[in-house]
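hey m, so remember when u said the tokens were messed up on ur end? i reran from scratch. heres the input so u can diff it against urs
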Amino acid sequence: MRARAVTAACQQPWHIRGQEKPGGPRQLAVAIEIASLFTGAARPISRKVSETDAAALNPQEVQRATPERYTMLSKSSITAALACAAALAVVGGTAALASQAASAAPATAPAAAAVSVPRCLTQNLSAGLHGDQALVGNRGFILTLTNTGSSECSLYGYPGLGLQDASHHVRPSHTHWGGTYFDQDPGRHLIVLSPGETASADFAYFSGTGGSTDSVATYLEVTPPNDFTYLVVRIPGAPVRIDRGNLYVTAMARHTPYNT
């Protein structure tokens, strides 16, 4: 009897954007998500979409459900969806709803796809400084991080920087994240690097004037985003004088424009 109730409630036609669709797995996911909104039990639901699912669903409709989205559903559709969800609750309770949702709703959050990709660490990276940007006392280089490991890894955000003298003693420095004199900041983006691939950032500083506040440096310490150890790169033209040790760097990106 309960199985018939579920079938009847969940096979009713549903409407979205003025189009009638037959009931089925997609309506089931919508019903579950609507019910969650009303009960305050909404949670992210994700699952890898199989080839069969992808062929059956309209790509424009494959997206995470939000309260705003349901303003496009007709009143009759909401009623049918709630009936479906109620029937499911009778059969299997809250645990059954979560299980059904996991098997019916596709994943859409970009971060979810990269959860299994480990972050890039210093032992699997090499760093470099390339080019030479110079204008009105400002000097800069393209900072690169290359995946030297045997598997893919991810970068997200800004590198940490530091200075060392010719004897590898730490020199005073202050790192500023954001735009530089030569380039705008692209902001944080998740970058997945396959073996051999490179990400880059714009690194710049203002040349010192020879005063006591200058930091005289030969090497740049580069800490990958979200790491705690650093790589050491020789600064081209070293030793260099850096005004007050101020270092400017953008977020890591797939490609950083080179401006002379």
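this time it looks ok to me. Residues 5-9, 12-23, 34-75, 88-110 have pLDDT under 50 and may be disordered. if urs says something different then somethings off w ur setup not the seq
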